[in-house]
Amino acid sequence: MTNFKFPEGFLWGGAVAANQYEGGYNEGGKGLSTADVMTGGTHTIPRRITMKLEEGTHYPSHEAIDFYHRYKGDIALFAEMGFKVFRLSIAWSRIYPNGYDTEPNEEGLKFYDDVFDELKKHNIEPLVTISHYEMPLGLTEKYNGWAGRECIDHYVRYCDTIFRRYKDKVKLWLTFNEINILTMPMGAFLGGGILLDKSGTFGNNAADIPQVRFQGLHHQFVASAKAVKLGHEINPEFRIGCMIAYLTLYPHTCNPDDIILAQQRDNLANFLCSDVQVRGEYPGFAKRFYRDNGIEVKMEPGDENVLKEGTVDYYTFSYYMSNNVSVQPDLTQTSGNIMGGIKNPYLEVSDWGWAIDPKGLRWTLNNIYNRYRIPLMIVENGLGAVDVITEDKKVHDSYRIDYLKKHIEQMGEALQDGVELIGYTPWGCIDLVSASTGEMHKRYGFIYVDKDNEGKGTLGRYRKDSFHWFKKVIESNGADLG
């Protein structure tokens, strides 16, 4: 791809999540969220879920990178880069501290008014994720999170509040971040506030009860569909999308068994959720998976109609890497985003062992678009790396520039393939806390934040080399990749 310009009006920007960057966990009337009871961790030491705050324990979300007090300066930096759009999330427990409250918290609503006004001042469009890997802790304590159908009504009340409050300030919405994480054991608490293991074990080592996870996922489907319908009634100009953690999977060999396994995992991990949210019904392969695994998802009368009436306007997803799958045992394994796989001998890996596969993004864009034919947006992509800041406060992250450049080139190829791609918001445009490990050491941003894994640092902000590079990319609408 040479001198290819992206479509006029293409939405360049960046993405973050409240629990990973906002901080102010007990300020402005905010209640505790599920993220607020997750301890710090590292790549090798898993996070813990404590439910009650322990004195002397580090909880990364409590301060995060303190956007709560520094949002004006951060937004000014995003504007300096030329952002057209900024993907952020609203902390549900800032609006409804316990989740089941009947009246919203005005201080919390005012905070986001101020953030959206600041974005407007800089001509940056907000793209708001309504629920991003957190929910009020009160809903976990009372209903075991999304395992309880009661959460549907509480979520819809929350949506009604923010849709009406911000109907003239926000037009782009996403109902749930990476909703498909509930198809995987590690996603129960992170994505659903569901406790399957009372010991506080987090991640893939926690106990698993698939029946509970998939019932919780159904409740999220119904809640999402109701939110879409409600949003369109409140403001017909709202565009409301789904968000999927797309896990690109290749068969490791041309053995038909590997081909079938890759297809089955692709269906379950990627297409179950988007088929429901885009097409409005459960696909046949999901019904077979439930039947084969003894899962009985309980539906209330009317649920199927709700799903049909609440389909999304556009499809967004995260893409970081690809994985290989095989029926062969004892092949070399590698780590990855949400799930690992078989090591791909044709690809390099990041500091965290994630395969770097730009061409996989082109394949993924075509695969999604050929299935759904609705606008697509990449709302997470990036390289988590160990950055070194020099004495004169510079970060020479040529490796990040190289990663992003190659992925943007493949986005251009997909556009020329006929894919309707409308925007790109790289993840963690400013360094933030990792959701899976709770660490700061794994950095994604164009902006360096002075903070370490233990929560120490000045929180100073410094432009990396990638900051200046991405500014040129946006100014040239993708034509100048440097």
What would a concise description of this structure say?
This protein is an alpha/beta fold and 482 residues long. The chain is built from 14 helices and 16 strands.
Write a structural description.
With 482 residues, the chain is α/β, with parallel strands linked by helices. The protein has one domain: TIM Barrel (Alpha-Beta Barrel), CATH 3.20.20.80. Helices cover 37% and strands 13% of the residues. It has an eight-stranded parallel barrel, surrounded by five helices. Strands 6-8 form a two-stranded parallel ribbon. Strand 11 and strand 12 (355-356) form a beta hairpin. The chain is globular.
Helix % is 25-40%
The parts where pLDDT drops under 50 for at least 5 residues are none
Return the CATH topology.
TIM Barrel
Structurally, the number of domains stands at 1
Order of helices and strands: EHHEHHEHHEHHEEHHHEEEEEEHEHEEEH
Mean pLDDT: 96
Relevant CATH superfamily: Glycosidases
Shape: globular
**Count of individual helical segments:** 14
User: What is the level-2 CATH architecture name?
Assistant: Alpha-Beta Barrel
Please give the largest β-sheet. Answer: 8 strands, parallel, barrel
Helix and strand content put the structural class at alpha/beta
Whole-angstrom Rg? 21 Å
The first-level CATH class name: Alpha Beta
First-to-last CA distance: 13 Å
Strand order of the largest sheet: 1-2-3-4-5-7-13-14
- Tally of DSSP β-strands: 16
Organism: Youngiibacter multivorans
Family: Belongs to the glycosyl hydrolase 1 family.
EC number: 3.2.1.86
Pfam families: Glyco_hydro_1
